[in-house]
Structures are given as structure tokens and as C-alpha cells.
Write a structure and sequence with these properties.
The complex is a heterodimer of chains A (281) and B (193). By secondary structure, chain A is of the alpha+beta class. Chain A has helices at residues 2-25, 32-40, 54-63, 75-86, 121-125, 143-147, 173-177, 202-208, 218-222, 247-250; strands spanning 96-100, 153-155, 161-163, 183-187, 192-194, 227-229, 234-236, 256-258. In chain A, the strands form four sheets. In chain A, strands 1-4 form a two-stranded antiparallel sheet. The longest helix of chain A is centred in the first third of the chain and has 24 residues, at 2-25. Chain A is elongated, with a radius of gyration of 25 Å. In chain A, 38% of the residues are buried. Chain B has 193 residues and is mainly α. In chain B, 70% of the residues lie in helices and 0% in strands. Chain B has eight helices and no strands. The chains are: A alpha+beta (281), B mainly alpha (193). Chains A and B meet through helix 1 of A and helix 3 and helix 4 of B.
């Protein structure tokens, strides 16, 4: 018993001494600013900056390769802190949030078939283009929910993905995994969005969805600068988002929504702090 | 002398650690995307394996056996191997930062790599003497490096081939590894045991 303890302890001690000595001899100088920047970053390792993880980004900024303004999820607060550590002027980043541009849940939009497979949007999409008749609509199987590192997305009881404007940090992970490309980025200040992703003709859209855009152009007529019709689909021109609210009531299919007045039906999120632009850094 | 040569041939070709004994598959698949990283990893493993063989041989026959505590073999060996790998990591980080970056997580993975522990345990199991175990270790490491470099060369070419979508990436790599393993079976029977 004693021999066991002594021998393993002895080996361990020798190894520790050897490694301690080696650590001194082979020490690599780390820029202290890199550690300070790593402290300030949120640690979510989301990759929005384009670097593999927060430590890689901290290293790149300390080297002078990367701009301090790349950490969009960290918000302006983080950007200011990083800029202060590096001793440069802080840039103003335009905070963006992700929006699911679809309101077609199971009650409002038709399905081609009943899908009983793996509850993953990419898997469903491989099966004849997905269970939803609309080619651009949200499938509601939750792939984006799992991709979001901040827990900002929910699937309503009727199978529609909704993103919380408070929790979304604009990291774009959900945009990357969605097979329908129905998640779009928009400036945080813009609360009015056209919630449709189908470029089909109006008559077609009416057949498979109650709340799809039929490109009737009424929105564009009521707010010419705020809307553009592209490929039979209306979209908000975000530079003029402040003029867009007037068309919300005029839209015949009710596919335009002002998120400051509320989230799509069935969502548990509450509008309010939505457009204030503040969120936890 | 002939004995040692036979051990060398046996461990490099006939009983190749990766392709015949299936030890060390993790770095084999993980670091073999480019020939340079494969070579770098192979050299790191060679260093670790040789020193580990020496140190563990001493520990076994001068500490564990005399005190009758052979049951501590696994722990003691892992302790030694872990320290050695830490040392190698420090040296590589200092001398070749580029290699350090490209090896990434696979460098500390040499520690829990069954190839190194397997080597140490096999030395004892086969009751090799000091010189034989060193040659065994060098042979094992050279065999490991050979397998990795060959595989890396194959993978570099695979990248340029039109692989069917369902096979792309790891899938075709594993199929290739299996074929390479089959090819090395051609050496079976070259050396007894």
C-alpha cells in the first residue's frame, strides 16, 4: 500500500517538476491584450465575427488583423470595450436581428403531405421539397431553434418559427441552417416586415396560404419609398422603415406585420422592449 | 541483430499499429488531410512513443515489479505518457507555431491515444528486453507515420475526385482506410508473430 502511494506520488512529482522547468524554458509570450479582449467577449463562440470561436477572434484583434467591430452579438458595449483595450476609436456597428419572414403556420398554410420523419427542417426539405406546399414558407420543425446559441427562437403550437427581437444578437447561425432561407437579417430599428417568402403568382399563393403576399402593390401605393416589389413579392426597403407602418392595415392578406405592436399569432414573445435596441451584452 | 531487424519490419509493415492493430485511429483520421500535418504528427508521436517506451520499461521493471504493484501499470503509464505529451506540446508551440496551429486539438489527443498506451503495454506483454522495446517503439511510430502519410497522400487526391454526395468527407475516408488496411494485409506472413 505504502509502496503504491509512494511510487505513483513519486512519478507524479518528478513529472510535475520536469514540466514546470520545461514550461519556464519553453514559455511563449502571449499578448496581454489578447487575454483582456477574451475577458470582454461574451464567450458564446457563435462565429458571427468569422473566426472559429472567441479566443481566435481575440487573438486576431490583438494582432491587429481584425476590426473590433466584428462582434455584433456583443453589441455596441462590447465593441467599445474592445476598441478601448486596443486604443482605437470605436466604430458604430449597425445592430441587426433575424426575422422569420413567414406567418404560414399549420392553420393558415396548406401541406403537401403529412411528414412523420426526423423532426429536422433539412431532413424534411430533402423529401420532395418539404411538407409545406409553399416553396418558401417556414417548415416549423425547429432546426433554427437548435442552432441558436442564445435561445431566441421558438416554434409556436401551430408550427411556425418566431424569433425574439430582444434575445436575437444577430449572429446569423439560424440563417445558415434554414433550408428555405426564410430567415432574413434586418436592422434592429426596423419593426415592420413583410412576412412572406413566396415568389409565386398571387392566385397560386392564395391557394396554399391565407396570409401570403399576392403582390397586389397596395403597400407600395400607400408608402412608395418604403416598399419594393421584386419577383412578385413585396419587401420593406429598410432605409425607409419609418414610413412602412401605414401599409400594415391596408394589406389585404395581412402579411405585413409591425413587430412593435406584437408578434405573430401563437407566439409567446411580448413586444415592447423590442424596438428599444437594448439587450444584454 | 537480425531479431531487431525482424521486430522493425514486423511493426512497420506486418503488424502496423494503425492498419493491422487498429490503434490510434483518431489522429489517423483527424490529422491526415494534408501530408505536412501528417508528417508533423508522425514525428510528434515518434518522439512520445520512444521516450514513453523507455520510461515505462524502467518503471515496470524497477518500480512496479520489485514492489509487487503491477496492478498500477495503467495509471503509472498514463501519468508518464500525459507528461510527455505536455512536454511535446510545449516544445512544438515554441519551435513551430504553424505546426502547433495545424495539429490543434490532436496534439493533446496523443495522450489518450490507445496507440501509445498500447505500445507500452505490448512491450511488457511480449516481455521484450530494453533494446528490443526501444526498437519496437521506433518501429511502431514509423509504421504509424507511414500509415498516416500514405493516407494523407490518398486523401489529398480524393479531394480532387468527383465523389458521390453521400460519400463525401469522412465516409469515403473510412472506406479508403479500410482498403489501405486490406492492402497491408498483403504483408501478412512475412514475419512470424
Amino acid at each position: 500500500m505504502l509502496e503504491a502511494v509512494l511510487s505513483i506520488g513519486g512519478i507524479g512529482l518528478l513529472a510535475a517538476l520536469a514540466l514546470g522547468g520545461a514550461a519556464k524554458k519553453f514559455a511563449v509570450a502571449v499578448d496581454p491584450r489578447e487575454l483582456e479582449i477574451l475577458d470582454v467577449l461574451s464567450g458564446a463562440n457563435c462565429g458571427a465575427c468569422g473566426y472559429p470561436g472567441c479566443s481566435a477572434y481575440a487573438k486576431a484583434v490583438a494582432n491587429g488583423e481584425a476590426s473590433p467591430a466584428l462582434c455584433t452579438p456583443g453589441g455596441q458595449g462590447t465593441i467599445d470595450k474592445i476598441a478601448a483595450i486596443m486604443g482605437v476609436a470605436a466604430e458604430q456597428a449597425v445592430p441587426q436581428v433575424a426575422v422569420v419572414v413567414c406567418q404560414g403556420d399549420n392553420r393558415k398554410a396548406k401541406s403537401k403531405y403529412q411528414y412523420l420523419g426526423i423532426q429536422d427542417c433539412n431532413a424534411a426539405q430533402k423529401l420532395a421539397g418539404g411538407p409545406k406546399t409553399c416553396p418558401g414558407g417556414c417548415l416549423g420543425l425547429g432546426t433554427c431553434v437548435r442552432a441558436c446559441p442564445f435561445g431566441a427562437i421558438e416554434i409556436t403550437a401551430d408550427g411556425l418559427a418566431v424569433i425574439s427581437r430582444d434575445k436575437c444578437t444577430g449572429c446569423q447561425k439560424c440563417v445558415a441552417v434554414c433550408p428555405r432561407q426564410v430567415i432574413k437579417m434586418s436592422p434592429r430599428v426596423a419593426t415592420v416586415h413583410v412576412l412572406c417568402n413566396s415568389h409565386d403568382k398571387g392566385a397560386e399563393v392564395r391557394k396554399y396560404c391565407e396570409v401570403g403576399c399576392i403582390a397586389c402593390q397596395i403597400c407600395k401605393k400607400s408608402a412608395p419609398d418604403a416598399y419594393q416589389i421584386e419577383g412578385l413579392l413585396a419587401q420593406v426597403v429598410y432605409e425607409h422603415h419609418d414610413q412602412a407602418a401605414v401599409a400594415v392595415a391596408k394589406c389585404p392578406t395581412k402579411c405585413i406585420r409591425d413587430f412593435s405592436q406584437g408578434y405573430p399569432e401563437g407566439s409567446r414573445f411580448v413586444a415592447g422592449a423590442a424596438s428599444s435596441g437594448q439587450h444584454a451584452a | 541483430m537480425v531479431e531487431l531487424l525482424l521486430i522493425l519490419v514486423s511493426t512497420i509493415f506486418v503488424n502496423n499499429f494503425v492498419l493491422a492493430r487498429f490503434l490510434g485511429i483518431c489522429p489517423f483520421l483527424g490529422v491526415s488531410k494534408k501530408v505536412e500535418t501528417a508528417l508533423g504528427m508522425g514525428m510528434a508521436v515518434t518522439f512520445v512513443m520512444t521516450i514513453a517506451a523507455v520510461v515505462t520499461w524502467f518503471i515496470q521493471y524497477f518500480i512496479l515489479v520489485p514492489f509487487g504493484i503491477e496492478y498500477l501499470q495503467t495509471i503509472a503509464f498514463i501519468l508518464v505518457i500525459a507528461s510527455l505529451v505536455q512536454l511535446v506540446e510545449m516544445v512544438i508551440q515554441k519551435t513551430s507555431p504553424a505546426l502547433y496551429q495545424s495539429l490543434g486539438i490532436f496534439l493533446p489527443l496523443i495522450t489518450t491515444n490507445c496507440a501509445v498506451l498500447g505500445l507500452a503495454v505490448l512491450n511488457i506483454q511480449k516481455e521484450l528486453n530494453f533494446l528490443e522495446s526501444i526498437v519496437f517503439a521506433v518501429g511502431a511510430a514509423l509504421g504509424f507515420t507511414l500509415a498516416m502519410v500514405l493516407f494523407a497522400g490518398l486523401r489529398e487526391r480524393l479531394d480532387l475526385c468527383p465523389v458521390p454526395k453521400c460519400f463525401q468527407g469522412t465516409a469515403i475516408a473510412l472506406v479508403t482506410a479500410g482498403l489501405l488496411s486490406l492492402a497491408f494485409m498483403g504483408f501478412a506472413g512475412l514475419v512470424k508473430g
